[in-house]
Amino acid sequence: MVNFPMAKQHILVTGGAGYLGGILVPVLLQAGYRVTVLDNLMWRQSIHLDLCALPDFDFVRGDCRDEALLTRLLKDVDFVFPLAALVGAPLCDKDQVGAVTTNRDAIASLVKIASRQTRLVIPITNSGYGIGEKGKECTEDSPLRPISLYGRTKVEAEKIALDRGNAISLRLATVFGAAPRMRLDLLVNEFVWRALADRCIVIFEGHFKRNYIHIRDVARAFLHALGHFDAMNGQPYNVGLSDTNISKLELCERIKPHVPGFVWFESKVGEDPDKRDYVVSNAKIEKTGFQPAVSLDDGIRELLKAYRILRLNEHRNA
To answer: Which domains does the chain carry?
Structure first.
């Protein structure tokens, strides 16, 4: 009797050459999956060149909104990770049509085309909670009240995916950490850069709170969802550091020990265009066995090393 090896599971990652994809795709390959990346390379990035020698890696340059292309790519896929999106409130406000068609409508096309057996793990943002109730943590049962176009399109995309079934939603906290397609417009990444470059930050509405998660822990959350798909299927999960629901002022306090001479001022004039303000519970995913491994302080130390390499304003979404 001949024992044939089992075929490797195949994952399509749309937007897989972005900030998250730059970390996640190598992790998936190391875990033994076949991975196809679909990306339009809108930032002119050239990451994943080191993966091109691997037989389990493939790259397709194209648009996630191209239904003919999606139809071809979805024929031999077990999982889809739809990362392709215009990420962040400023970028979505700058290109509102692109935000709607990429963040929401492309997900509708994906679930229409994909086989019912194809499994989805979709990342959205916990900014969908908008402004939380004072004294209450936002759980997955809390009302979703997004206050930005970015938040609205991602909340709508989550509903499309979960209504279709055979899907898991990961509601990501504000992500931080170094990556091949770096972003400096994320709050921790930007504050650490400003602390290092200017030694000073002017803060608007510094009491606003949010949750945070390291980019490598986001990749680990995707792997966790793959390994626990049947148990987690059909549900949304907050993904963040449970000990790091902190305000902007508290974030500055956390950065200060790492950057001597760093100071900050809270302006009484002006306002933050991103009005989200909430405390998030991550207990639901933690009960499935997931625990983040990278602390905020670990991430700050990492970023300080990374910023010896980068130059200002080359790595912003908007």
So the answer is: 10-177+212-241+278-293 (3.40.50.720)
